Amino acid sequence: MKYRRSQHFIVIRLDEDDKVVESMEKICLREGITSGVILSAVGALKRGTLIFRRGCQKEFQEHLEIIGNGNISGSEGKPKIHLHIAGGNDKVSVAGHLVEGVVTVFCEIIIQDLSGFTMERRLDNNLLNQHVLNPYALEP
Prior knowledge:
Elements: E1 2-6, E2 9-15, H1 20-31, E3 36-53, E4 56-60, E5 64-75, E6 78-88, E7 93-113, E8 120-123, H2 125-129, E9 136-139
Antiparallel strand pairs: 1-2, 2-7, 3-4, 3-5, 3-7, 5-6, 6-7, 8-9
């Protein structure tokens, strides 16, 4: 994992076997980012977990070329990554919320830091009662 910061932007390169969400959380924690936009995520994953719809989470164990975007908010004082991806190969196409993914070859991510703007995620009991697997609602 390598990254570079330039004022309000961070450019990240994840390498073979890096974990996407875990790596982004570490960088955001190190850089003090709890409000931001994931402008772009492009690369390849070899395995991971996606949430496809309410109550449906599945693991994948195959090469996927991916694109994605999302946001970063604070939750209990830590950065929370909300990243959606679309990916595919010669056999399958998938899209959903990335719980975690393991990089194959590389993955490039660009984040815009929204310093001075607060976005928080809080546990939402209504979403929990609906069996939403990631029941944290954004409080802009």
